[in-house]
Amino acid sequence: MQYAWPIARLIKALSGLPGIGEKTAQRLALFLLNAKKDYIEELVGSIGELGEKVGLCSMCMTFSDKDPCAVCSDASRDERTICVVADFRDMVAIEGAGSYRGRYHVLHGCLAPLKGIGPQDVKIRELMERVASDAVGEVIVATPFDSEGEATAHYIKKVLKPFNNLKLTRIASGIPVGGYIEYMDPSTLGRAMEGRKDI
Predict the structure, then answer these.
(1) Which of 43, 76, 100, 143 is least buried, going by the fewest C-beta atoms within 10 A?
(2) Whether residues 134 and 167 fall in one domain
(3) CB-based contacts of 157: which residues, under 8 Å, 6+ apart?
(4) 167-170 sheet: strands from edge to edge
(5) Which of 107, 96, 103 is nearest to 70 (CA)?
(6) Are residues 38 and 68 in the same domain?
């Protein structure tokens, strides 16, 4: 069926979202056509605010509407411990488990040479600068247990090795090989944090 251009444009935009195919995008577009004006305005406004008000925390590289973010500015958290995660969803999952009270560093991806993603494409340089300038005692590597996450963990170990007084650990394998942190239940994440070991 030929849709009017604004509807076709919306379907195309929605189908670019993860997990949304063309049929689901069509259903969502048709839902929005029938939605109340107030709902449409709220949706458009909230999406617009993402670009205008949300940026990266200059310390941990997480998404935030404040700089530094709420975690980095929380004086009750252990500033000597940094948990390195691949992306924001992993940070949210670990926070949801409630067992970790340190700070974070979000890489925004993992090393994937076959996809052309190297160290310059993720926030590893910022991590090195942070470790060099801050009084960091431990870096916990909490990247996924897939090939890209493991490659990233090994690379982090290599670049942080010169920092002699730094304890470098990897979360325990309570998370299954090939598993993603964002999908783990809180007790599994808690065990993984408690059972971390040197790498």
Answers:
(1) 76
(2) yes
(3) 141, 168, 199
(4) 102-106, 78-85, 138-142, 167-170, 197-198
(5) 103
(6) no
134 is in which domain, residue-wise? 63-198
* 127: region left, alpha or beta (phi > 0 left; psi from -120 to 50 alpha): alpha
Same domain? 120 vs 162: yes
Measured in whole angstroms, how far is the alpha carbon of residue 122 from the centre of its chain? 11
Is 58 inside a domain boundary?
no
Which amino acid type is present at position 164?
N
Domain check: are 180 and 95 in the same one?
yes
Predicted confidence (pLDDT) per residue in 45-86, tens digit: 999 999 899 999 999 999 999 999 999 999 999 999 999 999
Same domain, 69 and 125: yes
Distances (CA, A) of 77 to 51, 82, 99, 102, 125: 29, 10, 12, 5, 23
Can you give the pTM of this predicted structure? 0.82
Contact 156, 139 (CB under 8 A): yes
**Portion of the chain with pLDDT greater than 70, in percent:** 98
Q: Are residues 69 and 45 part of one domain?
A: no
